[in-house]
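Lab notebook, bench 4. Still working through the backlog of constructs that have no structural model yet. Next entry is a single chain of 112 residues. Request: give me the structure tokens for it.
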Amino acid sequence: MTDLPPDLPRLRTLETWLRYALDEVRAAIDLAEQREREEQQGRERRPPPPDWLLEQGLNRNAPPVQVHVGGCWNSGKRRRGITRDEALRALVDGVKACSACRPDTELGYLDG
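Model written out:
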């Protein structure tokens, strides 16, 4: 056992401090549990990723760069979700298909 002071006043002081410390730990646990609940709710409520992505050009006036399958690792940061019809239309209009995820194959689009 640890070396505790022998007199009552110091033991009472130590008890008070330990109660305070335990309250602090319990409050920190409550906050951590709340954060975990909120993160879990966020994961559950997150909308599903789009099925198709259109990678945008460098500025808002630049034409689109590539069409991707949703979740493609090669899609870049400037992208937006699009519908299947929009993906097909983009390919027909000459937007390049990503060579990594092959959206043209997924869509059944044969060039020409």
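Notes after review: The radius of gyration is 29 Å. The CA atoms of residues 34 and 83 lie 37 Å apart. Flag for follow-up if needed.
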